[in-house]
Write a structure and sequence with these properties.
Number of helices: 9
Structural class: alpha/beta
CATH architecture of the largest domain: 3-Layer(bba) Sandwich
Radius of gyration: 22 Å
Distance between the termini: 60 Å
CATH class of the largest domain: Alpha Beta
Largest sheet: 5 strands, parallel
Amino acid sequence: MKRIIILGSSAAGAKVIEEVRRNDRESEITIIALDGHYPYRRDAFASFISKEITPENVFYRSKDFYDQHNVNIILDQKISRVNFKRKRVFTEDKQQFEYDVLIVTDTPENRYPDIKGTNKENVYGYKKLNDIDKIVNALPVVKTVVIQSNSFSGFEAALSFIKREKEVILVSSEDSFLTASFETEMVEWLISKLEEKGLRVIRDNMISEILGDKDAKAVRLQSGKVFSAEVILFVETDEDLRLFSGSSIKVTQKIEVNAEFKAGSDDVFAVDQACQLSGFEPVTPLSVLEEQGETVAAVISGQERTFTMPLCTLSQNIEGFVLTVLGRIDGEGVTVNHAFDQDSGTYKGLYIQDNCLVGAVLVNKEDERDALLENIQKKVLFDCA
């Protein structure tokens, strides 16, 4: 019998439980939630904000799942330290939990960019359900939301606030999702269409300071412009890895792991945003988390298995404007063939590596989605002619 401790509320940890319990009813499994919630889906945050789903649908599994799988859930404890030599997790109220296997799925706090004022009220990250709960509760009296992000996740978050009829300002650097995915003509057209829907996009700029006394009231950009806002959201935040400093675990911006998600030893694993295999988005797609969970569960059970990145699909729809990302659109040796029809408002970018289709970006061409997915899965050769 093993003692398995899961730190954090990631869906990857719940998937580990599901897979381990298929053949092992005896091991003791404990989740220590770092923000007081049962495991949830970060990829559901946008739909939760926009009220397209109920709060219950944010959670990966129902509470009954954890009772049925004999899981001990700790929701009200804060971790003070982890002793990796003695294999113990200590809490601030002096409790300690012994483990044979430790799985790190999350870290305790957001680490915001090095910007003056991030410690003020009304400043949030996009990885903790606690933050999303506070934002949703505040929205009835919120007029303007400022979001800093370079990712699809940030773009998705921005559209979710638009659906709640808020003024939204999306601030991004020159390396944003839009500029990386589309050529200049398409970017200009796309931004003009988004602005018609109420989303203001500010490119090649970043927040330099958050203004206000106790509560954040405005942001100052590097350009010097100031925008007032009641909610300031950083979609890309670093992980708070102080719990793991001074240990045998190798930590850079995230915890380094091998293809089995082992973090430097046979008894410590790291998944989701805690590890460097989390993927290209600050919100790891659910399919990736499930594959991570299945890999860790197999290794714990003594099977030989390494992680293979699944085919991911990202999509966002607002008033007939549909943006879809399929597969992989970055990486060494990846090139793009694109076609933009301004009259019809459609775009198709095909991403090629070693003459095979590996990814696609579509705007208002969802009728081609399934065929392209099949071609990506089959690694169909791309005819450049």
